[in-house]
């Protein structure tokens, strides 16, 4: 349980940093959109970056949420056990802090605490490093040719600009 908790704390910190970074990119691209006037291609280009940053922020939040859930899981199981013990026999005093699992076999602790905690840490790990790997390895827009290719894709989506009306001469 201690290793899973330490890994969950580490993943929670990394996921928080990833979320802050993604939200920083989101805010910068959002402010860029506000400064672009009457340029469909530029608006779509920056809006795509904005939606990508929001997607990454959501993914890092899920990763951090799973890590946080893994951190509180043993405590939640202990609190639930105390509540059930109090509810079933109100004359029994609750277990003392630090002794949440007294009287449980190793199998019960592993089955109800350690395995779910390790599953949550593993899923958090997959979300965080999957997102990070995809971000680093995708390489979209990392070269001038890639940026021009993306720009051309958005040019095709925008209607052709009509020349201003000259009037009859």
Please compute the radius of gyration using only Cα atoms.
Answer: 26 Å
As an assembly, this protein is single chain
Number of individual domains: 1
Order of helices and strands: HHHH
Low-confidence stretches: none
Counted by DSSP, the helix tally is 4
User: What is the CA-CA span between the terminal residues?
Assistant: 84 Å
State the shape: elongated
Count of DSSP strands: 0
β-sheet strand percentage: under 5%
Q: What's the short story on this structure?
A:
The chain is about 75% helix and about 0% strand. The protein is mainly α and about 170 residues long.
How would you describe the overall organization of this protein?
- This protein is mainly alpha-helical.
- The chain has one domain (2-155).
- It contains four helices and no strands.
- The chain has helices spanning 2-35, 40-88, 106-138, 144-157.
- Helix 2 (40-88) packs antiparallel against helix 3.
- The longest helix has 49 residues, at 40-88.
- The protein starts with a helix and ends in a 12-residue tail after the last helix.
- The model has no long low-confidence stretch (mean pLDDT 77).
């Amino acid at each position: 349980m201690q290793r899973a908790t330490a890994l969950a704390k580490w993943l929670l910190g990394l996921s928080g940093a990833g979320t802050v970074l993604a939200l920083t990119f989101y805010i910068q691209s959002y402010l860029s959109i506000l400064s672009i006037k009457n340029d469909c291609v530029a608006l779509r280009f920056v809006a795509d970056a904005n939606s990508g940053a929001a997607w990454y922020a959501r993914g890092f939040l899920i990763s951090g949420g799973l890590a946080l859930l893994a951190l509180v899981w043993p405590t939640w199981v202990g609190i639930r056990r105390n509540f059930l013990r109090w509810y079933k026999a109100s004359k029994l005093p609750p277990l003392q802090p630090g002794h949440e699992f007294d009287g449980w076999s190793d199998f019960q602790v592993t089955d109800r605490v350690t395995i779910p905690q390790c599953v949550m840490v593993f899923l958090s790990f997959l979300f965080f490093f999957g997102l990070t790997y995809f971000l680093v390895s995708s390489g979209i827009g990392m070269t001038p040719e890639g940026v021009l290719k993306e720009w051309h894709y958005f040019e095709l989506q925008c209607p052709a600009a009509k020349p201003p009306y000259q009037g009859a001469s």
